[in-house]
Specification:
Blueprint lengths: L2 H6 L1 H4 L2 E3 L8 H10 L4 E8 H5 L16 E6 L3 H14 L3 E6 L4 H5 L10 H14 L3 E7 L7 H14 L4 E5 L10 H4 L7 H10 L4 E5 L5 H9 L4 E4 L1 H5 L1 H5 L2 H4 L10 H7 L1 H9 L4 H5 L12 H11 L7 H14 L1
Parallel strand pairs: 1-2, 1-8, 2-3, 3-4, 4-5, 5-6, 6-7, 7-8
Length: 335
């Protein structure tokens, strides 16, 4: 963690965060992102409280010390269970614990958590209060602007008021509705229209809260614009995964004003090699790491060859760092 983030707190890191994304933001992905930016707040994939508390799957809390500042996102709807999970997360060393009130998947709905919780603000407040009672780590909420036929300008202020009353001081708002019936999780990330205006309205209505906007942000320039317009933070999802260098490599200089030479994609790829070697020596597989590196050269000469080599060779038995070196040769040839 940089000195600036250490001194000013996690809210400073939250000026730019990488959204929690199922099957994507695992510990290998976060390690890559941390090489690109020393300051951005990184999130885990959502971890369900039942998996930790009932299933004893505490291995889901494992992370690399280099990942700080890093937030654990929890899914659940039982205050006692979430409190126990938050306590485990705090003991594991996370810098923040977030409650998921935005995921629209069928699996999440069947567990009565995620975006469906937008319909139960009192329950969310109870969950937040119980989590905060269980750990000294700050508890935050990530939500949608509403679900189904809800009118966002009616329900969102009431929802935020409830969680603020429970002690939550930071909230990330995905600026789209979630349709719990009729749209897939993928469609819910694309079809409901973005409404950035309502997020700005929530910041104006709750000036004491740290408000981050999530949804549809595809460039670091857009992050800067939204911050300049008065938001406290911006959370980037798919663009940070598919174009990690474009979103994160210059962020320390442009978002936090740090003097840092921007690392090249090649430098980042080679900086991953010692990590890959450790992962392999621990019994891991190459593709578990390199699948997150496919977009490192997005939009640059040789990017297609880079992706092809990693995609075709990283899953082979015995694949090691030499596959990354071979993929880098495609970049050098194209340059």
């Amino acid at each position: 963690m940089s000195d600036k983030i250490e001194k000013q707190g996690i809210s400073t890191a939250a000026r730019l965060s990488v959204a929690p994304m199922m099957d994507w933001t695992d510990r290998h992905c976060r390690y890559l992102h941390r090489l690109l930016s020393r300051n951005a707040l990184l999130y885990t994939e959502m971890v369900t409280a039942p998996a930790l508390v009932r299933g004893g799957a505490v291995h889901l809390l494992d992370f690399n010390p280099e990942e700080h500042p890093v937030a654990l996102q929890l899914g659940g709807s039982d205050p006692d269970e979430l409190a126990q999970a938050a306590k485990l997360g705090g003991a594991a060393g996370y810098d923040q614990i977030d409650l998921n009130c935005g995921c629209p998947s069928d699996r999440v709905q069947s567990g009565t958590f995620g975006a469906v919780l937008m319909k139960r603000p009192e329950l969310v407040a109870d969950c937040v209060a119980a989590m905060q009672e269980a750990t000294a780590v700050e508890v935050t909420v990530k939500c949608r602007i509403g679900v189904d036929d809800q009118e966002p300008r009616e329900v969102l202020p009431a929802f935020i008021d409830k969680v603020r009353g429970a002690g939550c001081r930071r909230i990330a708002i995905h600026a789209r509705k979630a349709w719990l019936q009729g749209l897939s999780p993928k469609e819910n990330r694309e079809i409901p229209p973005l409404d950035y205006a309502i997020v700005h309205e929530m910041k104006a209505a709750f000036p004491d809260l740290h408000v981050s906007l999530n949804g549809g942000v595809e460039s670091l320039g857009t992050v800067e614009k939204l911050l300049d317009e008065g938001l406290d933070g911006v959370m980037v999802g798919r663009a940070a995964y598919h174009q990690p260098w474009d979103i994160l490599a210059e962020a320390d200089a442009r978002i936090w004003g740090e003097e840092r030479e921007t690392p090249s994609p090649e430098e980042i790829a080679r900086a991953m090699l010692p990590y890959i070697e450790r992962h392999l020596s621990d019994g891991g597989k190459l593709h578990q790491v390199t699948r997150h590196m496919l977009g490192l050269f997005a939009g640059r000469p040789g990017a297609r060859g880079w992706r092809r080599v990693l995609s075709e060779r990283a899953t082979r038995d015995g694949a090691g760092p030499e596959v990354v070196e071979a993929a880098l040769e495609r970049i050098e040839v194209a340059a």
